[in-house]
Amino acid sequence: INITRTIKLQNTASRVNGKLRYAVNGVSNTNPDTPVKLAEYYGVADKVFKYDIMGDNPPENGATVVMEPNVKNLTFRNFIEIIFENPEKSMQSWHLDGYSFFAVAVEPGTWTPEKRRNYNLLDAVSRTTVQVFPKSWAAILLTFDNAGMWNIRSEIWERTYLGQQLYASVLSPERSLRDEYNVPDNALLCGLVKSLPKPPPYTI
Predict the structure, then answer these.
(1) For residue 123, what are the contacts with CB-CB under 8 A and spacing of at least 6?
(2) Which residue of 18, 26, 59, 66 has the fewest C-beta atoms within 10 A of its own C-beta?
(3) pTM (2 decimals)?
(4) DSSP letter for each residue of 89-122
């Protein structure tokens, strides 16, 4: 399977307006009043967040951290390589909702494309969480074939709460129940979508 996209995620700790924040590629996630999945489902995403404010690679020279909802737009059914890079002195643990992935490498130092020759492509373990040692990196491979809005986050809850997380938006172009269920009728609504009519339901 050919890799269609490589995303390198680097965790950092810094201070914004004098307060501790954790970030991924220079973006510290904040949760808007309207949950990002509801905003997308009801067609008002452009009023709540911007897609892809975080690049596929860490910013150079430690650019200033920004605080925004962090939503990455991913193409349905693409086969993607994600590199978790940990420049800090503490252990990191990352979790991905909605998917199992293959953890193919964990090594010290900095990842480069040449490191792919060391990947375990024979009997890699399928899992939902991967650890990254201090001053090290980990590589995972997966197909984003589960439509929805999925959280990629630190499993260290202090870091998650203070911004070390993002959302992967995976939209099916078919609007089909084959790929994604409708939002339940009894779902609690808030923010901008609280009084909006329900959008047309997905069909078979």
Answers:
(1) none
(2) 18
(3) 0.95
(4) SS-EEEEETT--EEEEEEEES---GGGGGG---S
